[in-house]
Amino acid sequence: MSYHFNFGWLLVYYPELLKGTWVTIQLILIGAVFGVSLGVFCAWVRALGPAWLKPIVSVYVELIRNTPFLIQLFFIFFGLPSLGLQMGETSAANLAMIINLGAYSCEIIRAGIEATPRGQFEAGASLAMTRFETFRYVVLLPALKRIWPALSSQIVIVMLGSSVVSQIAVEDLTFAANFIQSRSFRAFEAYFVSTFIYLTLAILLRLLLKFIGGRLFQRKAAR
Amino acid sequence: MSLIEITEVRKSFGPNEVLKGINLDIEPGEVIAIIGKSGSGKSTLLRCINGLESINSGSISVAGAQLLPDELHLKALRLKVGMIFQQFNLFPHLTAGGNVILSQAVVKKTPKPEAEAIARQMLDRVGLAAKFDAYPDELSGGQQQRVAIARALAMRPIALLCDEITSALDPELVGEVLAVVRSLAAEGMTLLMVTHEMKFARDVCSRVVFMHHGKVHEIGRPEAVFANPQTPELKQFLGML
Ligand SMILES: Nc1ncnc2c1ncn2[C@@H]1O[C@H](COP(=O)(O)OP(=O)(O)O)[C@@H](O)[C@H]1O
Ligand SMILES: [Mg+2]
């Protein structure tokens, strides 16, 4: 083997790596917060919501879950401008990730809601709570608790999938790796380092989600 | 005028008619036991009174207000009539105190300190003042059911519907729940309870309703109903106990 590993020169590119990592972190944070919020809303519609909204949400969820993420991203970035909906590449990447995670998390959260014992809804109703109040204060938290591990995995999957946004020139971590590789022609080192950073991000994200779950579902005395 | 007026109520699930024209008027302060075989429609009747099931025909009114199936009327009805279930149905993510506070805060917009004070008072009333911070799965079945009673009482209902509230309990825990119900009866709460506790029905209730095949088959004071059943169905039901 004549290839000589050499990581030292990567130091020259550390601003690119740092910036790319930060962009990827921002993408996942925005995508996770708004994507899961969208997922909760859609799960509510599919499980308990008004009949007229259900078909709309079903079409959205099935459309997203049965098409490639890259095509969704291209559609938003290259397709929507034809309809007069122009946006920057970062906005397009954010939107694509929110929409993608919204659909997948919808199905996960819905499973959590549907596992709620009927008696919980009846207890809420018998205490004069509306259906929505019962969902909000009685059903939602235990439902999220049930599916938190699955939801966490899905968020990590979307984070890793975010690497394709470099295809529309969002300067994320993958973009940085490609850039370094094209400048230095040292593919192994460039992708080895970016792989390592993705791995670290994924582990940190799982830890963060575990921590959030712990706080969210922590037993606390009534105030 | 009666507190609860049930007139010619019919209810079907698909082709299966479960309530076949129920008539029952309940006066304020009455304690009524509903007895009857499994499947005779006892639970369905209570659930209709609380609007958990809609009726096909007839009418139900509570304190003069007609039961209508829209959310606003249902809310008004459920503020007046509480319900206790066989399976307790406590909210598992909230403490006993949190269970009693929640609907006050959400539905009545009671300020937190006041809602908490009422919760403490209601838990005290069912003998569980010390369990304010305990979670449902840290409580025995009897304690959970008493929290459920406190939770319903905190909404200040004028009547309570109890559907076999001791049937899921170990025998040694039945007494503590019945003691609470007995004290509510003594304080003048209007109670409509489905029960298999015949001794309790005899001691505490003002009237006993025997349901059979979706109808009020026999009704009367407990002495009369238990000592002198008029129909062969009731005789058979009492005999097989
Ligand atoms: N949600 C429902 N859907 C269909 N049938 C039901 C439903 N609830 C009750 N029933 C039927 O109604 C009948 C009466 O049930 P129920 O009121 O629970 O009787 P009880 O409480 O006296 O045992 C039963 O035959 C039961 O199968
Ligand atoms: Mg029943």
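qc> The two ends of chain A are 67 Å apart (CA to CA).
qc> done
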